[in-house]
Structure formats: structure tokens, C-alpha cells
Amino acid sequence: MRIDHVVLAVRDLDEAAERLGREHGLATVPGGVHPGWGTANRVAPLGESYVELLAVVDADVGRGTALGRLLLAASTNGDAWFAVCLADDDIDATAARLGLEVEAGERRRPDGGVLRWRGAGIEDPRRLPGFPFFIAWQGGPGEHPGAATVAQPCGATGVAWVEIAADPVAFDAWTGDAGVPIRLVAGDPGVRRVALATPAGELVL
Question: Is 42 helix (H, G, I), strand (E, B) or coil?
């Protein structure tokens, strides 16, 4: 497994994108819409990983889904880190171990293309705050959201590490002790900080 992307729950995609660009030199591009969840996203491509800005854009649909309700709650007081997603080359085995359903997902990109994946755990109530969900992308490497050609003003080339407040034993049991660069700390559970790798050193968001 590896860190595929980190998710920032935001109230307004354009406002959040402008703030990240202004404060951190992180450029984003439109991602697409997830009709079944009432959400849409923007993506900051970083090569093999990316930062995802995710917002509920159709409140009626969003309030009717577990993911939509979680996003609305997470962003009540402003933009906040929501989750980490791990790329999993054996997602079926992971899902079987944890008793999760593997579900197909897709979104339509602004260019009209459809991006498809198989995911597990994002809406499952057993995924505690801060615990990752899992994804296996369909299509070639060039289809990955992080592969978009975007010059990052900050020079970011990937996710260096993520800091999460969680019980270490429960977290290792959930991830299968995957050895990904996640730093566990004490405190109220959830994703706390994200560090991006840049030529000038780590950029902590």
C-alpha cells in the first residue's frame, strides 16, 4: 500500500483552491462531480499522489449519504482534513480481512472522460475518524488524478507524511501494518497535518 491521496473537506471549492494557492503555492485543477454523493472535487496533482478538495455541492443529495453527512459535519467550522486514501493493489484481500464491501466508483472529468475506480471503506461506519479508506484505480497510470500536468508553484512532488490522532493498535489492525508514512499521535481522533515533499524541504499544511 501507499498514500494515494489526502482529502480536505471544504465548504466552497473555488474559495479553498484560492486559499491554498495563495497561502501555500499549491495549484489545483477541476476534478469532477460524484452524482451519487452530491459532491464535487478539485485536485492538486503531485505525480503518484494528490491532494483532493472535496465539497458537497448538492445538499439535498449529500445529506442523504453517509459521505455527504460526514463532509458537511467536518467542514462546519471551516475547511478541515477529512481522510487519507491508500492505494491498494490487493483491495479484495483487504476488504475481506476487514469485512468491507468493494464498490465501483466513477466521476466525469471536465474533458468528458470518465475516471473509474474500486473503493472500500469510505462510507463504512467501522472506519473510525482518521482511519484510511482504500482504492484501486482502473485504467493506466496516466488516468490517475495525480498525473495531470500542473506546475506546482511550491514545487511539491508528493505526500511526505500524514499525522493522524488514533489508537496505534486499532490503526495497525485496520491498515494491516502497511508501513505507510503515517505518524500517529495522541488526541481527538482524525487527520491533523499533511506534509508535502518539495525541493526546499517539507511543506506542512
Answer: strand
Burial class (CB in 10 A: 0-12, 13-18, 19+), 37: buried
Q: What is the CA radius of gyration of the chain?
A: 16
Q: What is the CATH number of the domain that holds 114?
A: 3.10.180.10
State the total domains in the chain. Answer: 1
- Domain hosting residue 73, numbered range: 2-150
How many angstroms separate the Cα of 48 from the Cα of each of 35, 86, 102, 119, 175?
Answer: 26, 12, 22, 17, 20
Q: Could you give the strand order of the β-sheet that contains 182-185, starting from the edge strand earlier in sequence?
A: 182-185, 158-165, 190-198, 201-204
| Contact present, 178 and 86 (Cβ < 8 Å) | yes
For the record, the C-alpha cell of 188 comes out as 481527538
pTM of the model: 0.94
The H or E element spanning position 102 is: strand 102-108
Which bin fits 144, alpha (ψ -120 to 50), beta or left (φ > 0)? beta
pLDDT per residue over 123-167, tens digit each?
A: 999 999 999 999 999 988 788 999 988 899 999 999 999 999 999
